[in-house]
Amino acid sequence: MTLENISANKSYGGWHKQYTHQSKTLHCEMRFAIYLPPQAANNTNIPVLYWLSGLTCTDENFMQKSGVQQFAAALGIAIVAPDTSPRGEGVADDESYDLGQGASFYVNATEPPWNRHYQMYDYLVDELPQLIESTFPVSTKRAIAGHSMGGHGALTLALLNPQRYCSVSAFSPIANPSNCPWGQKAFTAYLGNDTSKWLAHDASELMRQAKNFVPAKVDQGGADDFLVEQLKPETLVASAKANSYPLDINIHPGYDHSYYFIASFIEAHLKFHAKHLL
Amino acid sequence: MTLENISANKSYGGWHKQYTHQSKTLHCEMRFAIYLPPQAANNTNIPVLYWLSGLTCTDENFMQKSGVQQFAAALGIAIVAPDTSPRGEGVADDESYDLGQGASFYVNATEPPWNRHYQMYDYLVDELPQLIESTFPVSTKRAIAGHSMGGHGALTLALLNPQRYCSVSAFSPIANPSNCPWGQKAFTAYLGNDTSKWLAHDASELMRQAKNFVPAKVDQGGADDFLVEQLKPETLVASAKANSYPLDINIHPGYDHSYYFIASFIEAHLKFHAKHLL
Question: Burial letters for A153-186: b for 16+ Cβ neighbours within 10 Å, e otherwise?
Fold first, then answer.
């Protein structure tokens, strides 16, 4: 696999870098960003937090707006931010912001025209970590986090792969996609009309049935415009209670769905992951 | 004056808000952002740091990318980020990124077609602080900071108005605009061909002649692509030495001209201003 480094910015004593590579899983060129903390200069054993962004984002939004570098540098954790979908002229797309490019929902699509490129689940679970771990001075200790659609992605990837992730956290996740408009639209397109197949990618369903627990932290803004119709954290809470799942979830009055909310609480998420990664 | 609140995001316990108003100085509608720290809920005496952004920016870049809210909240300082120029269909503009809208250089233009709207110096020194201080729970203690073109703006506004600002800081300022391509292009357009008029807006010239000192802090990335041709901090250093001006300036190896650099050192700037504001 050939990586091309396309940008580098020194940040909090470490380095933010962007790379492109040809993905064999997604059949297109992909871009990702990595933040290597200052400790990576003298240590080949840095744990990695993968960050999955929300609808319409790329690898850039979180790296530019969350302020994560300050805390990753202090704790010695690398951050990897992949793109939110396959991209390019030959990749299926849709005019709406919540389907197609920028809106993969982090599943393996089974339905045409999506099934050729939209294999983000496999890309994130297998191809990307292999690439990261064979290229950068990092360990195989992984955590995963995300926002909104990426919060859904982080929770479902961790719940389906408890042996691969030390911890999982989410801001404002789409917690019960089988039962909200965003999830129903995407799952119908990518996975088809058989709703039983959707449950394998629904965090609330997976948390209710989980046998191996990955410690989980969720933060949600109380003034989030999408809270009631799209996000449904109460379903995730009910699943955690029913299964005695170790979920630390908090609703923060006044906070919305934006990166201002994420930035306000990203330190707590990094410290949570550090407890399990370090 | 009528202010319209167009956005509000809770951030680090305080509020980031955007407002529009009709500027009588600039003869157009202007937008600005303000961060009110949590202390503003119970205190009507919050000092204000004004932030001037660089070429092509609006009020949003600094608020979204610098991480300033964390430190403003901890210290109890309000942040005001104005736009970088007058805006709108009726406002003179140029196709290039370094002249016209987004590139005011924070002067009062004397030359047509710029002189009707491009009166940013008066807007920033008089109209905007009056509006802020009559609307929000803030004191008249002011500091000013900026980046690149905004670093030039912050230094020149403070040097020309030492009675109005407690402290000034800059990231990667255009430190000697009379002697660099960006400055020469802008000053020719806005101020005309008489280069003696440019010196009243050149930080290096003003610092060399200053009689009343505003404490000043400057940080510059050593790997900044614009360092040699456009920024010229060495001229500012020579002026400070010649005039025994209290300038704390540091060059940081490896850092570039981006917001990743600003975010890495914004805490130190806030603490510097806090010493003089609080």
Answer: bbbbbbbbbeeebbbbbbbbbbbbbbbbebbebb
Q: Which residues of B touch A266 (CB under 8 A)?
A: none
Give the model confidence (pLDDT) of A14-72 as tens digits: 999 999 999 999 999 999 999 999 999 998 899 999 999 999 999 999 999 999 999 99
- Chain A hits for B256, Cβ within 8 Å: 9-10
Q: Tell me which chain A residues have a C-beta less than 8 angstroms from the C-beta of B16.
A: 260
CA A131, chain centre distance (Å): 17
Contacts of A47 (CB under 8 A, 6+ apart): A76, A77, A78, A138, A139, A141, A142, A143, A166, A277, A278
**A16·B69 Cβ contact <8 A:** no
- Note the pLDDT tens digit of each residue in A148-206: 999 999 999 999 999 999 999 999 999 999 999 999 999 999 999 999 999 999 999 99
Determine which helix (DSSP H) or strand (DSSP E) holds B235, and give its type and residue range: helix B233-243
Q: Which of A147, A152, A224, A273 is catalytic?
A: A224
What is the nearest CA distance from B48 to chain A, expressed in angstroms?
Answer: 20
pLDDT 10s digits, A115-154: 999 999 999 999 999 999 999 999 999 999 999 999 999 9
DSSP conformational letter for A116:
T
